[in-house]
């Protein structure tokens, strides 16, 4: 999470059948602004409609961060004020949950909060040996409302998921590999090349078969009602005084004073 409020961008580049999306707000660890979330959604819709796109690579600008979550100066205050549709326009959907083009994440550094929630919507994941992963929301009176309560236990198992969700602690790349959160750990300069290599490998396969294989796997999970449950309970948390106090304390660099209300 970051409290720097520059607009940020999401860059789209094409190399034949492979598209690369880059979260470009390096000065703020690629933390998500409202503009970036909307831009990402627009790019994804464009790529979904393009039958020539056979694989997508998602990464962050620079070498320090993949994404540090939502911007505490803009996005988080709007969520706690009730604008949940910014993050979750459809309560039954989450990041990339209806995208059947394979998505490969190139995690080049910090991947926490909303950044980790983006990661959970991807398919193949390449991490830098310097990467770190976490869901610190409970430390600031919030919960990760981007699908983590549903996707994380499905992907890494219950104890590892609960550790991340309930302690707010971060884990390093090797631990992320051990629990199955990422598929490979490579040296920092190999993260993006390796992700693009896998994207080209996938793109060389029969496109209808590839998209259908992913669609079956995603639809078989039946996560829509689970996502809707998370959205409803997340709204309850965001209405609390603690959800306002936590981000405020973070920006003021002091311990939060939670009231349990």
From TrEMBL:
Keywords tagged on the record: Lipid metabolism, Lyase, Membrane, Transmembrane, Transmembrane helix
Keyword rRNA-binding tagged: no
Q: Where are the transmembrane segments?
A: 99-120
One GO molecular-function annotation for this sequence? lyase activity
Q: Which SUPFAM superfamilies match?
A: ClpP/crotonase
Leader sequence range is none
Entry-linked Gene3D superfamilies: 2-enoyl-CoA Hydratase, Chain A, domain 1, Lyase 2-enoyl-coa Hydratase, Chain A, domain 2
| A Pfam family of this chain | ECH_1
What InterPro entries is this protein classified in?
Answer: ClpP/crotonase-like_dom_sf (IPR029045), Enoyl-CoA_hyd/isom_CS (IPR018376), Enoyl-CoA_hydra/iso (IPR001753), Enoyl-CoA_hydra_C (IPR014748)
Q: Which GO terms describe its biological process?
A: fatty acid beta-oxidation
Chloroplast keyword on record: no
Family per record: Belongs to the enoyl-CoA hydratase/isomerase family.
This chain belongs to which protein, by name?
A: Unannotated protein
Q: Which organism is it from?
A: freshwater metagenome
> Lineage of the source organism?
unclassified sequences, metagenomes, ecological metagenomes
